[in-house]
Design brief:
It contains one helix and six strands, in the order ββββββα. By secondary structure, it is mainly beta. The chain starts with a strand and ends with a helix. Residues 1-10 have low confidence and may be disordered.
Amino acid sequence: MVITSKTRSRKEGTRFFKCPRPVPAVNNRIICPRCGNDRYFHEIAEDVTITTQYIQNADGSFTPQSDESNIMGDIKLFCSKCQTDLTEFHTQFVEMLF
């Protein structure tokens, strides 16, 4: 695949030239084997305890101060388009979180 860019100069008009750097291929993308989705995924954690600390404001409303979650069960990865279980790719998924 050759990628070209267009530039314009006053004297020459429009011309095309090759970009100096090709677009790199990404080989580590997770792709759903059932529907081909490579963009939308979700995790489901089982047996989770969420602890949130709140402070009550003068008007009676509450503002969260801190959150803590403790996952005691399994964490599963799913395709968000067809709901296929992709848990076998969860380690790769976690390594690519930034």
